[in-house]
Each structure stands twice: as C-alpha cells, then as structure tokens.
Amino acid sequence: MDSKILQRIGREIQKQKYRSFKSSAIIATTMLGLYSAFLLTLFIIESIPLSEVILYVFLFIMVIGLNVASISAKWSLKYMGFIGVFNVVFIYTFITYLLFNQSLPGIFANLFIAFTIGFIYLDVKIATINHLLMTFTSSLVLWIFPEILAVEESTNAQLAVINASIVIIMIFLFLSALFNIRTKQFNYEKLAKSKENEYRIIDGLFQLQNEVLNDPLNLDVFYQDMHTFFERFTEKLEMENIFEKRLELIQDLENLTESKLKKKYKDVPEEIIKELKVLSLNSHQKLRYIAYRISQSNADQKPLTDPRDAFNSFRHYDDSNTVKILVFSAFYTYFRHPDVDRPAMSHEGFVEWLEKSGLDKLVEPKILKSFHTYKDVLETIVKDALEGAEVPL
User: Fold this and answer.
1) End-to-end Cα, the chain, rounded Å
2) At 386, is the secondary structure helix, strand, or coil?
3) Domain limits at 380?
4) Burial category of 290 from C-beta neighbours within 10 Å (exposed 0-12, middle 13-18, buried 19 and up)
5) Same domain, yes or no: 94 and 223
C-alpha cells in the first residue's frame, strides 16, 4: 500500500483516538468533580478539621482544573494520556491516604470509584496502572485492615486465598479491558480504511471529470465570491475583515509551490497553513471531498444522527474557529452557485436541504446559530454582491 495512503489512514486513526479519549476525559473529569463534592459533604458530616478540608478541596480543584485546561485547550493525545495516568494515580493515592489517616465510614468502597474512573479510559497504559493499583490497594487493605472486610478472625492461609481471588478477578477484568481496547482499535482501523476507500473512489471520479469535462470548476469565480462575501458580511456587522489575508493565502495554495508559499507567508505559522489547505478547491482537499459527497445526498435519505458517521469536516477538533467559519462559508457559497449537474440553491433551499439530510449536525453549533441569526444579512449579501453570470462551479 502506498506510503501516503498509510499516512492518511494513520492520521485518521489518531483523530478517532483523540475524539474517543477526549470524551473519556470529559466523563472522568465530571466524575472527579462529583466525587469531590461527595467527599466534601462527608468531611463536613464527620467534622474533619477545617484546615485539612481546605487542603483536600485545593488538591481537587487543582486536579480538575488541570483536566479542564487540557480539554478546553485541546492538548495533544500524548499529553492528555499523561493527564489520564495522573488522574488514576492521584485518586488511588488520595483514597489510600484517607484509609490510613482518617477514620471515615465506608472509605474502602471508594476504591471502586477510583477503579471506575480509571476504567473510563480505554487506553492500555492507563488500564494497566488502574488494575495494578486496584490489586495492590485491595491487598493492602485485606492484610492491614481485615476488619473492614469482616475477615479479622481469618488465618493467614485464608487471607492468602482471598487475596489470590482478588488477583484473579483483577486479571480477568484486565483481560476484558484489553479486549475492549483491541476491539475499539480494530473499529478505528476499519473506519479509517473505509474513509480512505471513499476518498479513492471520489479521486477516480474527479479524474474522470477532468478527462470528460475538462474540469469545469471555475476557481476565479469561487474565490472572488468568497472575498466579496466576507467583505460585505464584515461591513454589515461593522467589524474588521479578519478573513481577507486568510482567503488570499487559501487562493495562493492553488497556484504557488510550497517553497514560494513559505517565502511569501514566512510570518504565518505552518499549522495555520496546513489547516487552511482544507479550504482550497483542489480535488485532493477536504472541502471538495465533502462538497462532492454531500452533493450526492437527497432529502429522502435517512438523516444523519451522529456527526462521527460522516467526514466531520465542519467541526474538526484540530481546526480553529476561524477555519470552521471559513469552511462552512465556503461550503455555503459553493452551493449558492449552479454546478454541472444541479441548479443553484436558494438560501431557504440550502437550509431545508441541510436540515432534512441531518448535515446540520456536522456544523459547529455556535456557527450554525449565527448562520440562522444573520440569515437576512447573508441573503442580502448574495443578492447584492454575488449575483451575476451563472458560472458553473
């Protein structure tokens, strides 16, 4: 298999892993917050000294704050993995400390809360640490505090049997976790390869279009309309046109070589150039893929219910808000023009088609809300600025 294809598949798998891990991180952070509220209530009921309560609250605020920061700032999968490991180690350490230093009722049962938080993360490293800590901590309690489990009168041999049972149960649970992780990994690869096959089919159709129709895509009309669209839009909102330089860069992506592009935009970070590439209408870029794929949709098909079922191109996790706005605006402008196999869409027709197909779920909610809020402005822009010769896109 071609190295570029393997790289695309690998990137898609990493994106799926990130989305899954981010969801797990959100759930785990929420559970940490709820558990901290439970502990605070317990500390107040048990009259724990105020200085200790303040210290405990401070620790949980720091840990939860770190988690929230990693999620909201979109830290890389690697660093979010480190945060997941830290969460598991922290919660076990904290509960173990309470076991040895506070006479709190039922604190042993809190180990199952720690185990559940660790189990949320479908990651081999975190799963290994979680099961090892649960096994170690449970064994520690069994031998040092046998009264907690009502086995204080048992002999060492009987305690050893109970301990062995705990170890066996943890091994079985660990194997189950590994099976779930491997299954999810298989699904990642299967979906990535499915998407790659779809890309290759669309590539073939683009090549056929070039041969038969000599590529009727009129880039000059499209980019001129994009410039006009954002110029009029920002004028009506009485704001600076922050999109102009980015649009110029997108247009240059079609024509300039990589070396010339870097020379002209040497002050623009490489990450921004990479994410703006998805907005070019080059047949190998994401915007044109999604435009073609959705152009084959119809209002009678089963609506999409989960944005992860499609290409998710309008609200990708690693895109900035500026790019998300540009992607959707470019897509809207594209469909307001006629294509070789369909007439131009009206604003109402576009909205109706978007909602009936379920594709509105692919758009960032706050961007879609603004799109509906300023629908009159958008329609005015199209009528006043974009109407002209009917040039197929």
Assistant:
1) 33
2) helix
3) 219-386
4) buried
5) no
Digit-coded pLDDT (tens) for 190-212: 877 776 666 666 666 666 666 66
What would the DSSP string read from start to end of 149-192?
GT-TT--HHHHHHHHHHHHHHHHHHHHHHHHHHHHHHHHHHHHH
pLDDT tens by residue, 163-176 = 898 899 899 989 98
pLDDT of 389 reads 43
Same domain for 368 and 228? yes
Whether the pLDDT of residue 259 is over 90: the answer is no
Q: Say how many domains are in the chain.
A: 2
Q: Is residue 108 part of a domain?
A: yes
pLDDT band (50, 70, 90) for residue 31: very high
Using CA atoms, how far apart are residues 391 and 337, in angstroms rounded to an integer?
A: 7
Does residue 213 lie within any of the structural domains? no
Query: Are 186 and 91 found together in one domain?
Result: yes
Same structural domain for residues 178 and 300? no
Alpha carbon separation from 34 to 50, 120, 175 (Å, rounded) = 20, 15, 29
Domain boundary among 136, 170, 190: 190
Q: Give me the residue label for tokens 């131009």.
A: 344
Using an 8 Å Cβ cutoff, are 223 and 247 in contact? yes
Asked if residue 296 has pLDDT above 60, the reply is no
Co-location of 185 and 246 in the same domain: no
How far apart (Å, rounded) are the C-alpha atoms in residues 129 and 92?
Answer: 10
Give, as one character, the DSSP assignment of residue 298. Answer: -
98 and 243 together in one domain: no
Q: Are 22 and 80 in contact (CB under 8 A)?
A: yes
- Together in a domain, 267 and 143: no
